[in-house]
Design goal:
8 strands, mainly beta, homodimer, two-stranded antiparallel sheet
Chain lengths: 150, 150
């Protein structure tokens, strides 16, 4: 395989996990920065043209993994690969952020749900989306329906 | 950081990079399997409820990285973080696949663009999408427009 290395770090308003909005209806509209290391700045060329980016990052403050767990959005346990739990066999996270602007090696973005100082592993352009009609959202849709019913 | 380990492997019709559809208008509708290792099978619990999955995998047959490169979809070079080039500082790939069915630790999926035997690092439910109206697709939209003009 390969040895992961940070290409940069997240500047986020969140210092602790408890501050990150979680659970059903949680909004991720916090602004922050993706600060890329100087040696990788050239890799950002032409990124300004994209409105949204995938950010792949490391859950660097998570330890070990749990194959079944109860996510904040439900009162029932689910398999780790059916959730976004940080306690995964490979502690890799994925976020979609909106690119607000670029200043050199700093990308200003909206939608950060990472902690301040989080190592960034990769950035990719967000290109396509699955039509809403074709999308099924499994246990999460069920948990939302139960919540609405009250 | 962490040491990446495979949670399973892709079974794909593609044995070589040259067989994977690439470039503008490339369709990814090939079917394949995500074969999860027995020790991680419990992590798949409830995954059947989701129509689409993110698959995070390793470009295990790619070497080194290149900060600027010419993607198959354009005749101009772009920064690696504005493309899906396999030659990245961290050789991590991301695909969205449609989940067709599950048999134990095997997920039958549509939309594989990986080579046969590719190590899978993570699977996550695909939950939301960016509304089409809000999406800008940078150099790729420009390359498509140039192609259409002929």
């Amino acid at each position: 395989m390969f040895t992961p290395r940070p290409i940069g770090h997240v500047r986020s308003p969140y210092a602790e996990t408890s501050q990150v909005p979680k659970g059903l209806g949680a909004k991720h509209d916090a602004e922050g920065e993706l600060e890329i290391l100087p040696e990788f700045e050239a890799g950002l060329t032409d990124i300004e043209g994209f409105s949204h980016l995938y950010v792949i990052w490391a859950f660097d403050r998570s330890e070990g993994f749990q194959l079944m767990g109860r996510p904040p959005s439900d009162d029932r346990p689910h398999g780790v690969f059916a959730t976004r739990s940080p306690r995964r066999p490979n502690p890799i996270a994925l976020s979609v952020v909106e690119l607000l602007g670029r200043e050199g090696r700093r990308l200003r973005v909206r939608g950060v749900d990472m902690l301040d100082g989080t190592p960034i592993l990769d950035i990719k352009p967000y290109l396509s989306s699955v039509p809403e009609k074709q999308l099924r959202r499994g246990w999460l849709a069920e948990a939302e329906a139960r919540k609405e019913k009250g």
